[in-house]
Amino acid sequence: MKNTAYIAFIILFILLSGCNKGVKPIPGNTSSPHISTIENIGSDTLVNLALAWAEEYHKLHPNVEISVTGGGSGTGIAALINGTVDIANASREIKPEEIQQAVINGINPEEFIVAKDAIAVIVNPNNPVDQLTIKQLSDIYSGKINNWNEVGGTDSSIVRLSRETNSGTHVFFLDNVIRMRIPGDKTLFAADTLLLPSSEIITAETSDNPNAIGYDGLGYVTPDVKVIAIAPDSTSAYILPSAVSVNKGQYPIARDLYMYTNGKPTGSISDYLSWIMTPEAQGIVTQLGFVPINNP
Amino acid sequence: MKGTTKSIEFLLNWIIKISGYSAIIFVILIFYFLLRAGLPTIGEVSIRNLLSVRWYPIEDYFGLLPLIGGSLIVTIGAALFAIPIGLCTAIYISEVASRRAREILKPLVEALGGIPSVILGFLGILILAPYLRKLLDLPTGLSALTGSILLATIALPTIVSVAEDALDSVPRSYRDGALALGATEWQTIWRVTLPAARSGVLTAIMLGIGRVIGETMAVMMVTGNAAVLPIGLKSLFHPVRTMTATIAAEMGEVAKNSTHYHVLFFIGLILFIISLGINIAASSTMFKQRKRTERILS
User: Fold this and answer.
1) Does A208 contact B130 at a Cβ distance shorter than 8 Å?
2) A7-65 pLDDT, tens per residue?
3) What are chain A's domains?
4) Assigned domain for B68 exists
5) Quick check: A218 contacting B, CB < 8 Å?
6) Contact in structure between B153 and B215 (CB atoms under 8 Å)
7) pTM score > 0.95 for this model?
8) Helix (H, G, I), strand (E, B) or coil at A160
9) What residues of A are in contact with residue B227 (Cβ under 8 Å)?
10) Residue B88 is assigned to a structural domain of this protein
11) Where residue B259 sits, what CATH number does that domain have?
12) Tell me, what's the ipTM?
């Protein structure tokens, strides 16, 4: 009898210890008066660019350390909402319901456009198809077109590749390509679309499999896949993605890339964000295959 | 002096006792937290939605059937590969191999169990998936079959070492008796040794399957993660999305206490119940077996 009472007490004790809400550490530039740390989490599309910026900035300002982590735009914004990050990277705009949740948690997301990106549609180099319209892309990804011969290719089934649903690129592609920006359109990705956990796996599968079609940020395109020229409709010209065609507004699947902070940034975070807007930092954008902002 | 010894004794006794019970406490705690985070699903998502065949959580489609089906077909596929190969390996190591071969094979099989699943997944993407696509002329090599083969390699070490222990513990006299009655070596293995070790072998299979159904990283990398309801064995050659891969891929993104968050915990709850069921089945077969032997001996 006595034994059971003891055990019950111990179980109760452990259960209760789980009820502790826990005090969240305040993130950001508080670690020491001299060295400040900036936590930067989010979009996998932006992660290489953010890393390059962080390294360059650390060279210029050795007392500022910036740690960059990927995971997807949704992951970054969720971290911002939960107050565990200084800067969230996103390849899509923050959604109204995310702003609502942030406000409930006492966070006011502040938006910065830091670069532009084109989404390249890629296929295997052996695939004879080299141009598609947005409508054809939409029909392919929603499952209406299932064979390459319907769009001028060989008689083989189409294998659709996509990023996971936590990817900003996924959401952007859904709204701007599959739903063709039609408000209220409820078309979805075909259920048999392969949702792959990273851009690298999409590139690997596309370069290996002649049936595959995938999409990815222009910065991720490697020479062993073929980029498809895209036309907004069948009467317009087919355009390949590039810095020039994006800045001229010709390439139809381009987007802004964002960083979000909690409220107006101060101190080292503010300095870092202003540096990102300088021509020097925007030069890195071009090197990595993205499109710089404030470019003529 | 005597008092101190007694109290140290008392303390040690309790530490050991608590450690012994801690496993139960952990299981209860895990179950409790899964229930707390998963059960709100029932109120937030209609049963009709949960039983639909479309999984697209960012637009509130929460059909669980493709995910459950995906896990099942990958597990069945892995079992089809792992059980025959595992049992044959165990029989070879325990009954046939020379002492020397045995001393080399046993540690090697156990080393296979030490390979991190992410490395197997990596090899799966780069080598196995392209190879299977060309060999079987599939649209894509990222399929349930590729996942099954990788999972079979993960389950093999468990099945082999547990089954081998079970075969090893069959008394020498059983084999000697069978051989003395004129049975061939194969007849001895198949009719005497294997049936005598049946409960241990069943446990080995159950533990192997338990290992398979919970595996995440390798399946997430090679099964393609398309949430299609698998119908029949033909689906083995198509992409599937498992429950574990879904939780791993989506947990990082969800806002705490959102419907999506609750549904992911609900999936965790289903997984927990399935593996609990497998373990209970494993131990009950062992128990039944023991009772029968006791009956015969008495």
Assistant:
1) yes
2) 555 554 444 444 444 444 444 444 445 788 999 999 888 898 999 999 999 999 999 99
3) 36-116+256-287 (3.40.190.10), 117-254 (3.40.190.10)
4) yes
5) no
6) no
7) no
8) strand
9) 191, 195
10) yes
11) 1.10.3720.10
12) 0.81
